Amino acid sequence: xxxRTSFExxxxxxxxxVDRAEFVNAGVIVFCLSRNYLDARVEVNEARLxxxxxxxxxxxxxxxxxxxPAVCQGxxxxxxxxxxxxxxxxxxxxSTVIQISxxxxxxxxxxxxxxxxxxxxxxxxxxxxxxxxxxNSQK
Length: 139
What we know:
The protein is an alpha+beta fold. Helices cover 37% and strands 24% of the residues. It has one domain (5-138). It has helices spanning 46-52, 58-72, 83-90, 111-122, 130-138, and strands at 5-14, 24-32, 37-42, 98-100, 104-108. Strands 1, 2, 3, 4 and 5 form a 5-stranded antiparallel β-sheet that branches. The protein starts with a strand and ends with a helix.
């Protein structure tokens, strides 16, 4: 069994109207100090975001979201900081359209695998219509 290690993660949220506090998860940041790992995955779900605010400028949102993995990879002025400092900068609270969830901790065998798993669970999950769900439970 491979060695497990601790890691920290946070969901990246798009909050189209800060005054309403509604959000769509748009990505995940994973930091693992012992493996010297920091990375993020993001995705713009146009349909879900338009449902919350039809006038949202998706190009601006996409550019701001794309900056997060870039910082993780060491790009730009913030990218010059250590991975730990970059993670702390990325997850610091803000009251803008792009917000970060509270930081959570976990154990994993691979931080890359944890990132993929969390991205699938928190961002790209598939909602099953009620009729399909009840059909599947009857099988």
